[in-house]
Each structure stands twice: as C-alpha cells, then as structure tokens.
Amino acid sequence: MSVDESNLSLMSKTMASSVPDHRVDDAGLVPYPADVRAHYRAKGYWRGLSLPAELMGAAAAHADRTALITPELRWSYRELAENAEKFAAGLLAKTGLEPGDALMFQMGNVAETVVAYLGCLLAGIRPVCTLPQHGVHEVAVLARHVGARGLIIQADFGRGQLPGNARTLLSDGAIEKLIVARGATFGPALGYDELLGHDSNPAELPYRTMDPEQIVAFQLSGGTTGLPKVAPRLHEEYAYNARAWANVLGWGPGTVVLYPLPIMHNAGVSVALQPVLLSGATLVLAPSADVGVVLDLIESTRPETIPLVPPALAIRLLDEVRSRDVDLSSVKDFVVGGQKLPIHIAERLRDEIGIAIRQKFGMAEGMFLVTPADATEDVRHHTVGTPISPGDEVRILEPGDDVEVPDGQLGELCVRGPYTIRGYYRAERHNYQTFTADGFYRTGDLARRHTIAGTHYYSIDGRIKDVINRGAEKIHADEVEELVMRHPDITDAALVAMPDPVLGERVCAYLVMAPSAEVLTVRSLGEFLLSHGLAKYKLPERVELRTALPLSNVGKVSKKELRQDIQRKLTDETTAAG
Ligand code: AMP
Description:
The protein has 18 helices and 25 strands. By secondary structure, the chain is α/β, with parallel strands linked by helices. The strands form seven sheets. The chain has a five-stranded parallel beta sheet with strand order 4-3-5-6-7, sandwiched between helices. Bound molecules: adenosine monophosphate (AMP).
C-alpha cells in the first residue's frame, strides 16, 4: 500500500497552523482541523454521510443477501434493517431517550445486541460499548462521564447477574431508564418486544439528517478511576474505519465472517459488525469463544475470515483434539491480534492445523495495522504489518519526546489518520499529554519500524502504559490499585503483569498490609474488589506481600523491579516443579 504523499505537506501545514490553535470543544475534543476534514473528504475517505445512513444504504443494496447468522436465526439485510428500524422507533417513542442521549450496553453476542446497536444509531442515540462483564462501579462511573441516562441489558447473560446490577444502578440513580433485551423484564424496565412492537414510520427516523462530524458511539479505552478515557467515535471516521478494513481484507457479497469475541467492543464493531454490513458480507456471530462452539460454526458456515483471534484462543484451538478433524480449509484469513503473538504459536498453527496467520494491531482510538495478504511468512510472523489506509500516518518517537527514532529502534508508536481520534471525551488536560501538538495519538505502545523492499512494517515490542493485557482484555493498573487501596488493612499496593503461557499476562498484586492486619489472599482480596463493583476479569490472580514497595530513583514505585521479581519467582517455581 502506498503512503499518501499529500499527508506529508498536510502534516507540516497542520503543525504550523494547529499548535497555537489547539482548541478544544465543549466535550473536550480536539476536533479534526478544517483543512484535514476537507482533505479526508477530497480523498473519499469521508463521505459526508452519517454512519447509519451508510449502513442503511448498504442494507438496501444487499436487501436479499444474508446479513446475520446466529445459532438461533439467519436474517437477510432486509430483515435486520426492519428490526433495527422498529427498535429505533420504539426507543424514541417509549423510553423518553432523545437523539444525542447515550445508552450503556451490557449485552452478549446475540441478535438482539445487533438490532439494539443499529437501532440506537438510527435513532441518534449513542451506544456506549461497556462489556456485560463490567461491574456496577464501572458502569456507574462511565455513565456519569458520558452523561448516559439509559442501560440495556441481556438479563440471561452469564450467571444472570445483570438484572441485580441494573437494579442497583437504578436505585443509586446512576441510570434512569432500563431496557431488558432478553430474559424476563422486571419493575420499571422496558422489554425488547415492547420496543419492537411500536408502529414505526422509517421516514421519520432522525438518522437521515444527522451531522456526520458528530459523535456516533463511545468506545472504552482506559479504566474508570480518575478520569475515564472514553474514545468518542464520529460518524464519518467510524464508517471509514469499517470500509477501510473490509477493503483491505477484500470483503464483499458472499464473504462469510465468523466473530467469536464480544461484539459490543470496538474490535467487534470495527473488525466485524460494521465492515460486514457495509460490504454486503455475512456475519456469523458466535455466542462465545468456546472452542467447541467456534469449531461447530466453522463446520456449519464455512467462514473465509476470522478477523480477530487473540493468541489465547489460538492456543485453545491448538490444544483441542477436534481441531485436527474439523475441515478448516475455508478459513483464508485467520487474523491474530489484540496481544503480542508468541512466534511458536504462529508456527504451531502452521504445522499442526495448517493455518497461515495474518497479524493485526488495533485500538479503540482508531489505527489498525494488518499484515498484507501476500506478505512473506517472515513479515506475517514477526510484524503486525502496515496501516490499513493510505491516509494513516505513523511516527515512532523517542518516549516523552517528539523526536523520531531510526528504523529498527524501539520508540513509542504515535499515530494520526482518517479514523484515529483527536481527543478523549471530556478529558482536556489528559488530551494535551496524550496527543502531540499536531494531533498524533501517543499510543503508549512500544514499536519498531522495519523497512523491507521499500515498505514500512511495524512490530509491537512492549508498552509504556501501565496496562495488563490479559488474553487481549486490558486492565488498567491504576483503576484496580485505587479500589485495592480502599481496603482498610492495606497501606500500599501495586499491580503488575505476570507472564502466563495462555493468557499472555495475568494480574499480580503486591500488597503492604497494616501492622497486625489479617493477611489478604487472592480470594479475600477478590471478594472485596467484587463487592466494590469491579469486573471479575480484572481481579488479581496472585498476591505477594511486602513490608514496603521498592522505589525507583525518582521516588515512584518501581514496577520494573516487581515485574522482574514475579518473573523470577515463576521461573523458580516451574523449575522446582520439575
Ligand atoms: P483495545 O483498545 O482494547 O483494542 O486495546 C488496544 C491495545 O491492545 C493496544 O494499544 C495494544 O497495547 C494492544 N494490542 C492490540 N493489538 C496488538 C498486537 N497485535 N500486538 C500487541 N499488542 C496489541
């Protein structure tokens, strides 16, 4: 893919113009400068249409093709669009929510989620892609931050904890309106069928007249302590993100895409749902990432693409005997991402089940890279490839500085482009630190640029940000530390990643207990954190006790030392176990 040369002149122009003009709108966003917006439109990246207008255009163009397959149903584009329109009309007529409001989602991989997400877009209501695993604490903090009044839940998700959590959120006043999209409704909640039963006139839905430069959906990035980091995705850039991904993977009518990860997440929306629906392809929505479920769906639907497989799922597939018997030959693009891929996993996939992987890097803030379809194995195994749009710009900067490092040298991955956000929502001060003066997002990931036959490829080789990547789910250490520190018996705490052969990383908590306090265990600490509304996947899985935490020479807790300590301990334990 050729780099868009005109970016270079644009870059220097905006550098000159935007430094003194680094304005922030009332949501704390640094908007795309006017000349950049004009450039993205001139290039055809942005189409001047709202995202739902683009989606409905595609639904009309592909009306009789299959849009969605779940274990329960198979819907054409027409059926999906009709359901979404009805839901949109019901939302506006019955909930009291209005265009511009936000709706928190706690939904799993079911058709109702797709209908509700699309219905929100058609109604001008902004979905907030919270996970069903999130606890009361997280949902409340995020709802307050984005000003969401409503919550939609799948009552029969998991162990059925969501109705109880929703009741708490309602009684605490964290949300005003509740929709139960599956399972029994209760109290003041509105049921999915009640919304769908509304007689709608699609011509009256607001999506036709929406401003495409406005926010269409909220994606989560940081934790929920201090200032939550929420990525506001705008209509035009979000639509382009999806089109660019579908284009680079060559999707079109007839392409079958299997997605087993949570659909209400930026990855689900941007590598599966939206690119499928904008390209006339078919989405097979797996209800879970259980290996048996995934293999069954591969057998029954013969997908060409699985667009995001975290290394942990790849390992589970390799360890499952049935993977040798199921015919995997339909899968042309098996795209691994979300986390650093250990090279031996790529080799095992090739040698044991005949899969040639591609790698992908992506983030809620935008910027996707993928290894090209015709790349050599060396590129596919050792890099995350090239950006998906010629409008994407990448700089590898000296951390904490704005100086580019030479090829091959480790630096911070900094990105800008037609679908990368220009600022977090209502986070003005943070935005000044996280974006360069000319609008590059400092990702906090460490990367290297490799130039091979004139093409720039990138590898991700560490991170600066204090995040633990547990099987591609991100845990922000400061969020959990703040809750840990609320425990009356703990005087100091630090969370670090400990290596794990399957999940990549797990959380280890280093604790300093108050004198004569009863020692906390993984279990008692976990119970305490769950009672404070934290999601289960963020719980520490090992506790190490110290009388004091080690400090670096600038007086901060030395997490480097703690990481080395836990690594050493794990190695010693493995050796001792033989
Ligand atoms: P999220 O916003 O949840 O999609 O997480 C984005 C973050 O996941 C990135 O900033 C990286 O830290 C990490 N990540 C995503 N893809 C990869 C990859 N292929 N290799 C290493 N880290 C990755």
